[in-house]
Task: structure prediction
Amino acid sequence: MKGSRIRYSDDEMAWLQANRLMVISDYHREFCAAFDRDDVSAQNLNCLRQRKGWKTGRTGRFEKGSEPANKGKPCPPGKGGRHPNARRTQFKKGQLPHNTKYLGHERISKDGYLEISVDERNPHTGFERRYVLKHKWLWEKQNGPVPEGHALKCLDGDRTNCDPSNWAPVPRNILPALGARSRLPYDQAHPDVRPAIMTIAKLRHAARKAKRARA
Result:
């Protein structure tokens, strides 16, 4: 009856303990044959071993240094990885995954700038391509390196507009005066007012620089 306790004789318990290391399927089959039991399942015997704390020596995972039973054995045709359904989705030699980022691939950075994959070795990973800021890459192609101590500032407020004419080198020290936390945030201002904000920021920077020079 389901839920009722299964009883074992002393001889049965002695046999079960002596053969506790057997694989559960063999353990169950041999026990039922030896004692003519048909009221005990393999799960019942496995639970008994667990309750008694009888260790089988098996952890259910490969231990360090162990080898799989099928090592060096080729998979039969039509089975496993050689099944036609598996073959259909396997990578072929030289094939690239569908999400490969090719030369010229573009993406948006977390700061909202457009990045482009260029033919330059990545100094961090050694990969043959790397992502760079597209606006800076295009601006330097046209104008040369950004002057030392300067950064490129987007003029129309659209960071994805990478036309070199939309970017101008400005001293890094004035960027806080143009940012969103300044009294006159450049990007949020009306387009007609932006040139004046830029001029004021540059004049204040020049005045501070001149004052330090005289000190």
